[in-house]
Design brief:
6 copies of one chain form a homohexamer. Chain A is built from 7 helices and 12 strands. Chain A is α/β, with parallel strands linked by helices and about 240 residues long. In chain A, helix 2 packs across helix 6 (about 185-210). At the E-F interface, helix 3 and helix 4 of E face helix 2 and helix 6 of F.
């Protein structure tokens, strides 16, 4: 159930807000990562399949600066093996006292064609990350080096991130507000529905700016749907 | 005790910080909404009487997307009936897991001449709200659609917002730091005093930049008051 | 053990992130003030020795606006006596419900040549402080006047700030991510090591952007150290 | 849809844990008041319809000890008008810094035949309340008198309590673990189902103590249902 | 302004709840230590003047097990010098991750005739402390040895404890609900008033149990005051 | 490195407080599970090797009551396969909104000879668990059925519990204060040292009750060690 190009394009053009509505209609209430924010104010939107990394608390005898020399260290391995077009999602237990990653690692991800990085902890060197123009989401800046608080445990398992279950292969979408996790099997249908909703909301926004009241317009009524059909045709969309 | 124009103008020119001082002198300690921030970095200041909306937690059988079709739905009714020049203040129990409102509703408020919107929860489509240049205050962005966590219960009652009691008709003032709630019967006198204090502080700021120490200047002494009188006269204020 | 000029310059050129690594190597895990952020997005970096001020909770009979008339009031005294080149660090018990200081006081500090101000509470008039271009760090904006929640107790004692022990004379370094406290006796050696690390990381960043993988580069290997030596020489650093 | 006697009896014999399962099967996820605990370790179970009282934050000029002299003060009115057999449920915004009620008021409720009292704030005189042997639930003991932090706003509206929506007439059930709120229209059917489940779990508990594994027993299988039918008949239940 | 015997006796017979009311009438809102609970369920009430100890966060190079060998270590010194009849009050910054003290130290305090111990952190060996039958108050049990998180900084300064300002010499009163701090100069008058209120509340409790409604009784009316006078005389109080 | 009988016996006789001291001396600061408490006030002490279960947040389509019918459901499998003498440790992400387990499952564990159960979430049917007299530790009672908030993900991995890293095979020790996790390779040496310390503290406790000051006794001096040697011999320990 790989993410097809049409779905990717559609998801790039819709908001996380709209996606939560589509998923709520299907019974999903908990899809938006809580307290996970864009690192930079102007970073591009993010779409990609989840590639997961799990951190547990550090232990003083195991977690020293020496861990990074190990080529099999799960954090470093995640950076080098997360597939292009995927999003590296890190379960940091919501703990931003120590960094989940820093700018050198994020740069490497970017160079490798990865679609973005998400943690419910914090990044260090976050001003540098913000300058990359790469989709990166965290809780807050966290200068302290990772091994002070975190131990990279494993890759590719279901994780918690921002209070949401993220399964490898789920589709992560991020915009300027935050990040939504779409269960893999729903990505295509939700993308299609969200694209339609977005178009209707563009029409609504225009009508509201022109002075129309909400009633009969949002949510849609028969009359507003007819007006929308005209509007849409006139714009060739 | 409607908000008169002179008071409105005065309140537009003073800071929330100064207002807390004036209210503290009158025995009020808890007037500044905690953890309620401007949505946009450059939105205009806000002054207006409170029009209240109260949310309680959602219940799965009552709160679905269908609620919005009801013309009497309290949230939609609040958007259409909040008087021009007033501020819509929403008691979201400090819960930003689901949205208190989104950009279409806020646009409608703006078009209707409402003075601002405040919640102790979060708004969705917050980047769009920020672009409106309309005074909007919340805790943090919240993409999830409202009915996932909130049920609009009623309009026009005393509420809690950001840990502060807000009574309908109280005067809400917002600047780049946050929002203060002034009990209605004190608005005029507090506005007058705050305007005076603000002028004095402009003078102090000038003196401090010129190298004067704080002692004898801030708080004012007889000497500083005399210097201020001169300064004031020379500027025709 | 006053802060020498070479150390000050070195510390101005390194990040708080790098400093936490150097200190972690020496066994220090808790040196980065938690939840303490720059007030302005573009304020300069900060380096200076800690000059401490301690706040305890306000008491209604002791803490009124009248306290500021006292020339010995510890907050005002701290503003007037914090030595040039030092950083005023305020223990606000992490409580941002009332202000730790405001823009007039911060302006006075700046005029006096102080190197910065840090609190684990909040500043009022924070938009004004942000415009000063002066290093100021807090938890979040806090309009309410100080005596509502805080009593200035004393100056010059060891304090807690952001969960970190700060001893008078410790070296405070701040950048766009936050603030680190370096024990005084380690400042020079840590500054030297951090400056070296920073140079190596500049080299790494260049290599990673050029497509090099992390392994063998970060952390350094014998090969990468050799390449670095060449790179360094070629740039005369 | 008054609470009938059979339902009341059934609900007195089942646990809040079992009720959450019955409600989850019907799509309700948020029915158990979070962080609301029994005041006394040995108080009786509680069943009754919700009678609601809503508190907002105190305001210094309105909330003094004088408020209690008013015969229409909502808190006092709630104590005197909450019907026998009902439960007084107080929305204290989860704030236990000031008391929601004290032992004299709770004694009066008990004398009046009320079924229990619940707040998501705290009670004062809680050791006295614990001695009453009356069902009372709160977050934690809270000695400070109510008007320091709370203003009694109104009676009989939908409220939030412990993060759960409570509508007047909903059925509140409390045991030694906490409190569950059952939507009024579901009380009878949920009570019947929960009573059945409880009986089955008694059987399971017996089997598990005797050494049976969980598989095939819990959840029930055809075989275990047959064994249960026998067990049940043999006990005449 | 030492605590006289009559005041001590009176304070031993009133509740912390009643004391908060007396202090609120005098304008004090923040006198009850938040989230500070008795260690044992049956420990005696506590009355005594505050003797303060202040902890700051531990630093790895300063805070090792070796600190306790120093006869001037502030925590050990506090244990040996806190005067009999006083209460040792510890500012632990609300941090219960490491212990503020343990059972051996508390035993020593008890043997020395000290009146009680209070922290807004946690005690270790708390089951042993509970068995002492000595007034001890904390946030929650905390097995980890103190130097992991705390550094004892100094003795005899104003401190924060449970969010309340405690000045040396203030009168600390504890019961089964928690701890109240009475400003020293108000102890005698508050004790007298609280003793009177307590007697009236005993009368009210009796009337309410007998079926009287609250109105006209609580708060007192002319009629109820007359009945109370009779009741009081008849009991010789 | 299985837990030998001598170590098990020693660990049964020492406190979690003492164990944190022994581990701190070896550089371990974070070994005591935070906010994890005994379910029952009188449950026996706990010693056993960790057998881990990991929960992630629930997803509405995956987590229904039907999951428990699956014989491979990780929670049920953990209950049936956790070895006798081991402790089942559950990573519930500190989330007590839904239950980690209930009394039937805990009874089954007990019958199977398991040494205890620990979660950083909550148990349902906790009064029933308390009556079992079986070592069970959690954050607080949690009636809601597990699948509302939790999904059992896997067994036998390193986890976080109460903010501490727990590796399968680590030795979990619980007493009336809480739970400590001892890295497997240190269990024997720490047990021996802790047993010695405990004996010395028994001696100290006796001396302190007899009136000895702390200095020269705690920590031990040459003199006190000599006295202890005598005391010990006289008691044949």
């Amino acid at each position: 159930m790989a993410l097809d190009e049409e779905t990717r394009v559609r998801l790039s053009g819709v908001s996380t807000a709209t996606l939560t509505t589509c998923l709520f209609k299907r019974g999903f209430r908990n899809v938006c990562l809580q307290d996970v924010h864009p690192v930079g104010p102007a970073q591009p939107a993010m779409v990609g399949e989840a590639f997961t990394l799990r951190l547990v608390p550090a232990r003083e005898d195991l977690d020293t600066m020496a861990v990074y020399a190990d080529p099999d260290h799960p954090q470093r391995k995640a950076i080098e093996t997360c597939p292009a077009g995927h999003v590296l999602v890190i379960d940091s237990r919501g703990d931003a006292r120590g960094a989940s990653a820093g700018d050198i690692l994020v740069t490497r991800l970017m160079v490798r064609g990865v679609a973005g990085i998400v943690t419910d902890g914090g990044f260090r060197d976050s001003p540098g990350i913000a300058r990359l123009g790469f989709p990166a989401y965290h809780r807050r800046p966290s200068p302290p080096t990772g091994p002070i608080w975190h131990h990279a445990a494993d890759i590719g398992l279901p994780i918690a991130c921002g209070g949401v279950a993220v399964y490898p292969g789920d589709v992560m979408v991020g915009d300027a507000e935050g990040v939504v996790c779409i269960p893999a099997h729903l990505a295509a249908e939700v993308a299609a529905e969200a694209a339609e909703m977005t178009l209707y909301e563009t029409f609504v926004e225009e009508r509201v700016r022109a002075g129309d009241p909400l009633l009969g317009l949002y949510p849609a009524s028969e009359a507003s749907r007819a007006a929308f059909a005209l509007w849409r045709r006139s714009r060739g969309r």
